[in-house]
Amino acid sequence: MPVSGRGGRAGGGGRRDPGDSVSGGRLARWFGKRQAEAPASPDPRALAEQFWCDWQAMLPEIATALGEGEPQLVENQLCELVAALHPDLHFSLERGIRAIYAFVVSGQEDPALRAFTDEWKALAPPDTPLWEFHDSVPAVPDPTEVTVNLGPHRIGLADVRVHAQVDEAHGVVDVAVYHPVLADLAPEARTALTFLPLDATLGERMAGERLRRVETAASAPTDGIDLLELRELIHRLAR
User: Fold this and answer.
1) What string of H, E and C letters represents the secondary structure of the chain?
2) Per-residue pLDDT, 76
């Protein structure tokens, strides 16, 4: 039932690839894009103000599509709405953590987009039981309950093991991610399965701040930890 997409270019931060989907802790998702020209001298605050005016105008249509279980009916309009804020932003409409629905607008930790997501979040309406708003992809409550669909493979993240090397002085961690099916995946899917568990566990922003080097492990690490243990390690480091 989720809708997600991006406003402009096909590149970007690269945490998730088109065609990836996630279920369990977060709904499955699919991607689209709309091409748009960024303003020559964009004013992030003015663009964010316009976004929320347009969002309010669209809410009845969004509510109808969600009520009918057909969120794809508003995918084009949401792509255009986010592209008007900035064409390189990504978005997703999914089940919320505290509210029924969550709308996420993400710059995938691109510093050039931070002003746009900061203003967007600052001007967002307060969260309600129906809607919550995030300016980066949030962590799921329990990543070990998440299932990732990559092509024909349905992969449980409970089997992920991570070798973590902590750099206390710099407050960062180098990780190598292992899953038993990694060797059977195509290179793009292998990369996706390396990063998806980290975003699901830590959230996009904390993963970007605290993970320095991320690699794919060819074999199971002898000192591997699961995703919940990785989350606890990172949270201790961040305190």
Assistant:
1) CCEEEECCCCCCCCCCCCCCEEECCCCCCCCCECCCCCCCCCCHHHHHHHHHHHHHHHHHHHHHHHHCCCHHHHHHHHHHHHHHHCCCCEEEEEECCCCCEEEEEECCCCHHHHHHHHHHHHCCCCCCCCEEEECCCCCCCCHHHCEEEECCEEEEHHHCEEEEEEECCCCEEEEEEECCCHHHCCHHHHHHHHHHHHHHHHCHHHHHHHEEEEEECCCCCCCCECHHHHHHHHHHHHC
2) 93
Q: What is the pLDDT of residues 135-189, one digit of tens each?
A: 998 999 999 999 988 888 899 999 999 999 999 999 999 999 999 999 999 999 9
Q: Give pLDDT tens digits for 207-225.
A: 999 999 999 999 999 999 9
The pLDDT of 74-85, averaged and rounded, is 95
